[in-house]
Amino acid sequence: MSAFTVLNPATGAAVRDVALASVEETDAAVARAVRAQRTWADLAPVARADALRNFARVVEDHVEELAQLEVLEAGHPISSARWEASHVAQVLNYYAGAPERLIGSQIPVAGGLDVTYHEPYGVVGIIVPWNFPMTIASWGFAPALAAGNAVVLKPAELTPLTAMRLGDLAVEAGLPEGVFTVIPGAGPVVGERFVTHPDVHKVVFTGSTRVGTQVAAGCARELKPVTLELGGKSANIVFADADLEAAAAAVPGSVFDNAGQDCCARSRLLVERSVYDRFLELVEPAVAAWRVGDPNDESTEMGPLISAAQRDRVAGYVDGADVAFRGTAPEGDGFWFAPTVVLAGRGDRIAKEEVFGPVVAVLPFDDEADAIALANDTVYGLAGSIWTRDLGRGIRVSRGVRSGVLSVNSHSSVRYATPFGGMKASGLGRELGPDAAEHFTQTKNVFYATS
Ligand code: NAD
């Protein structure tokens, strides 16, 4: 296959054919990146900072265009897509502060001066999934570039358009040619080549745990560092002492945002048994009111699933499940699936596996210890929420749940200034936050003898 037809998930109509790069084309891009990186790393830190600020400004000027493109290729509601495009500019702005702050140490030693430097890896390969095509791309490329690396980035086959446009905007903003190259292509061709190419010195992979495990194994063979952001089955834990109205009102956003195609989706709703029935009564109208429809409509909260295959996969999980209630979704063309609330048992497949669709499995728990045990009864450990009015309980449970990103009385997971990433099968390493640029460097220690 030499081209991929991008579809509009809201209608199923073809948007555009995108050529898929070959191994030879990937190698040529890496060779250009190797050359460009030397000049990029040699720039004064303030010059790299200025270039990234400029890139951020150009992205800001194109928020509407990027957002419209994301609506077209990914079916995201326009209000979410605008947030995502602005977020890319913010991530670039944030890491524009990093080149001048990659500070090493001076370590007291006998007989001389000991200094550490944070040196870039060289070329970094970034592999991105289809669920948040431009935001996830920026979490890799912004700090990697800030640290003085060149970046080759492979978007998902289904959603290459916003990443390709960001590649153009980087050049428009004045980044030297070859410093940031977007290479649309197949995972086993371009993505795999990032893993095996001797001049790609670090890989960042976001996607499924299955492919991430293969990528990590390949990187191990090459002794290449790898960051993995993988799947999730996050718990939303509601205690009887919580503000139940607020917790219930927040349920749809916690799991149906981006049609549930969110690695942080709180796809398990764990409710203390004493308030289980009452809480579901409160959740039902919130789910009914969740607005699913035309992504171009400003008031839409949820669009379609990404593809027919994804819709069939999600439907497979709901077949035969104990459905408590559902929201609504448009009929007809496009890959639509109504928000669905399922009553589940602890061993059920739907309570264990990542569905990656607008489906939440509800399970009761007995007490605090049971809630922590149930939340941890998964191979994943990405995100989660805890709803309680008891501060001590909020602290104890947040320390007890084995997840990388938790929130108490909120569902927020992503802020560019705070670290993001998973434990267990949800990943390795962290993105975002104050330390991300340093993760794209290697520490060099030099001892200068003075006698
Ligand atoms: P996927 O693993 O199928 O694909 C992800 C990317 O890897 C794509 O670009 C794909 O082309 C590429 N790829 C496929 N085979 C490859 C190979 N052999 N070598 C190298 N690259 C290869 O995942 P997906 O279906 O695109 O995305 C959904 C998954 O991503 C879900 O499991 C979701 O939880 C996860 N995800 C995780 C995070 C996070 O930050 N933890 C964020 C978003 C999505």
Provide a descriptive summary of the structure in words.
With 451 residues, this protein is of the alpha/beta class. The protein has helices at 23-42, 45-61, 63-74, 78-96, 133-146, 161-172, 187-196, 209-221, 244-256, 276-288, 308-318, 368-375, 391-400; strands at 3-7, 14-19, 106-107, 112-120, 123-127, 150-154, 180-182, 200-206, 226-229, 235-238, 268-272, 322-326, 340-343, 359-365, 380-381, 383-387, 405-408, 423-424, 427-428, 441-449. β5, α5 and β6 form a beta-alpha-beta unit. The longest helix has 20 residues, at 23-42. It is globular. The model has no long low-confidence stretch (mean pLDDT 98).
Quick description:
By secondary structure, the protein is α/β, with parallel strands linked by helices. It has helices at residues 23-42, 45-61, 63-74, 78-96, 133-146, 161-172, 187-196, 209-221, 244-256, 276-288, 308-318, 368-375, 391-400, and strands spanning 3-7, 14-19, 106-107, 112-120, 123-127, 150-154, 180-182, 200-206, 226-229, 235-238, 268-272, 322-326, 340-343, 359-365, 380-381, 383-387, 405-408, 423-424, 427-428, 441-449. It has two domains: 2-230 and 425-449, Aldehyde Dehydrogenase, Chain A, domain 1 (3-Layer(aba) Sandwich); 235-415, Aldehyde Dehydrogenase, Chain A, domain 2 (3-Layer(aba) Sandwich), CATH 3.40.309.10.
